[in-house]
Structure formats: C-alpha cells, structure tokens
Design goal:
327 residues, five-stranded antiparallel sheet, Phosphatase 2c, domain 1, alpha+beta, single chain
Length: 327
C-alpha cells in the first residue's frame, strides 16, 4: 500500500488576487527516509497586506525540512507516539521561524499563516493543524471533516447560526507565527486502501459546498485530477481567494459517485482534552438558540415596562399640574 499511495497538490491565486498566499507540500516514503508513507501540508498566509505569502512560504519550507530531519533520527520502525511528536515538533519549529522573522523585520510584524499537516503511516493518519485550513476524509461514500476550524465563529459560537459569519467575518484564533508558541491540535484517523484524504484552504471551502467537494473528490480518476477539478470548482464559483489543495488516495482507490443527499460530518473545536485520537463532532445543542430567544423576550418586557413607567409618570405630572391650576 505504501508505495502505491496516489498523492498530489495544487495551488492557484484565484480570480480576484494577484498574490498567492497559499502553499502546499507533499513528500513520499523515500523523501521521508522510509519512516512514514506520505506527508501532505497546506498553509494559507493571512492576508497579502500583512505578508501572509512570506509566512506561508517560511512554514512550507521549515515544517517539512524539520520533520524529515527528525524522522531520519528515529528508528527504522518508529512508534505512533514518536511520529506524532515529530510532527508536533516540526509544527512548533515552523511557528518559531515565522514569529522570529516577523520580530526581526518591522515590515513583517503581524504576519501569520494557517497550517494543516498530515503524516501517513500504514493505515494511520496523524494531522497537526492551527487555523481554519481543513482536513477531510472520504470513506465508503461518506466524507467527514477531521479538523475543527480555529476561528471565532467555530470556537465561540455554537449551533448553526447562518448569520454569524456575516457579522463576525473570518477571525482566526490560532495560527503559525502569531506568537512565540503555537497551540496546535493533533488529530488521528484511519486511511483505508479505498479512502481519500483531502487537505485544503478556505479558498476552496468558502466557495464550494462540502457535498460538491465530496463528489468531485470521489469521481476524479487520479489525485492530480481531483486537485485540478477542485481548484476549477472554486474558480467557477468566483475564485475570490487563493486556493490550495492536497490529496492522498489509498492504494486500491477506485473512482465512484457519491450518493445524492449524503451529508458531510463536521468537526467541532477540541475541548480541554486536546489531541484526543477520537474525532469530535458538532453538538447541535438547542441551548444557544433558546438563550437568545429568552434574552430577546426579556428585552421586550423591559422595554414595555419602561414605556408604561414613563407614561404613568407623565400622567401623574399632568394631574398635579391640573390640580395646581384649579387652586
């Protein structure tokens, strides 16, 4: 299986921007010193005006380089824990490199980048991420979002308030280079011989619905074709942002059509037990909506009481004035 993994990536500036802040990297088993089967990484620099292109470039250079160096120092058959630590250390090294560069150059202050990196070994996938670039797994016709966005919308607001994004915009709460250290999440999932792994930036997910992404990913004849078609979908939908995608398919993957109506399972922010190998799912709790309705009702009641109070005060004042006038 290892030697037959189908891996590819593609970045595109989109239709609205001249600078491409998205970076993608892949590496096969030989490049990884035979310590793992594949490596994929996607990074999305945060804003061209804040030199996001520089941040994502540094991350795309430092993270894989550090990872390969660390892997070559491990035993021929490293444990899952050793591989996970190597991926964490490489992510931390990339973060420190971006942060230091920003401190050295005033023109680069405030730059940062999202990052989602995956290390495939056997049937296991280790994913380290910070920001809102995502990892998806397509398995048996169903696609699941493995990572939860590190954004204000995802981490602070619960439920499915469709108006939230319009009010808050995209506010990243974690990323590479934003501070000296990074609080990256580590996820673990399985990649079967007929499964497909997708890493992508929000230039894809903001333009193309998850169901359509799943359909394109499933039907493409090769990983390279999947990347090309996904980028084309984003551009056809407007291409308002840079687009970055990386795909890894199992050795026995055969293209197929996803059944109509299949939902994409979404991830939720990690809780205090971060780095749990279990995938956490969105809890569609009714409490936020109920609380909002209760607050709205309370405001209406207070408004009515205030109106009645003012009206009663004015009525009494008028009676006092009339009494004085008759004396």
């Amino acid at each position: 299986m290892a030697s037959q993994l189908d891996i590819a990536f593609l970045t595109d500036p989109g239709r609205a921007r001249n600078i491409n802040c998205d970076r993608c990297v892949t590496a096969d088993r030989e490049a990884l010193g035979n310590r793992a089967d594949a490596f994929l990484m996607v990074a999305d620099g945060m804003g061209a005006n804040r030199r996001g292109d520089t941040a994502s470039l540094i991350a795309a250079e430092v993270l894989p380089t550090t990872l390969v160096q660390t892997l070559r120092e491990l035993p021929d058959s490293p444990t899952q824990e050793q591989l996970a630590q190597a991926l964490r250390d490489a992510t931390a090294a990339a973060n420190l490199a971006v942060w230091k560069r920003a401190q050295e150059d005033p023109d680069l202050r405030g730059m940062g980048t999202t990052c989602v990196a995956a290390l495939v070994t056997g049937g296991t996938v280790l994913i380290c991420h910070a920001g809102d670039s995502r990892a998806y797994l397509l398995s048996d016709g169903a696609m699941s979002q493995i990572t939860a966005d590190h954004s204000l919308i995802q981490e602070v607001v619960t439920g499915d308030d469709v108006g939230v994004e319009g009010r808050f915009g995209t506010v990243i709460t974690r990323g590479i280079g934003l501070s000296r250290t990074v609080d990256a999440d580590l996820e673990l999932t399985r990649l079967g011989p007929r499964d497909a792994l997708l890493l992508c930036t929000d230039g894809l997910t903001n333009m193309v619905r998850d169901r359509r992404i799943a359909a394109v990913l499933a039907e493409a004849p090769t990983a390279s074709d999947a990347c090309i078609r996904l980028v084309a979908e984003a551009n056809s939908a407007g291409g308002v942002d840079n687009i970055g995608v990386a795909v890894c398919r199992g050795a026995e993957y055969v293209p197929y059509q996803v059944a109509a109506g299949n939902d994409v399972e979404a991830a939720v922010p990690a809780d205090d037990t971060r780095s749990s190998p279990r995938r956490r799912r969105r809890s569609r709790s009714p409490w936020p909506t109920a609380l909002a309705m209760a607050l709205a009702a309370l405001c209406m009641v207070l408004a009515v009481l205030l109106f009645l109070s003012v009206s009663e005060r004015n009525r009494l004042a008028e009676e006092v004035r009339l009494l004085k006038a008759t004396k």
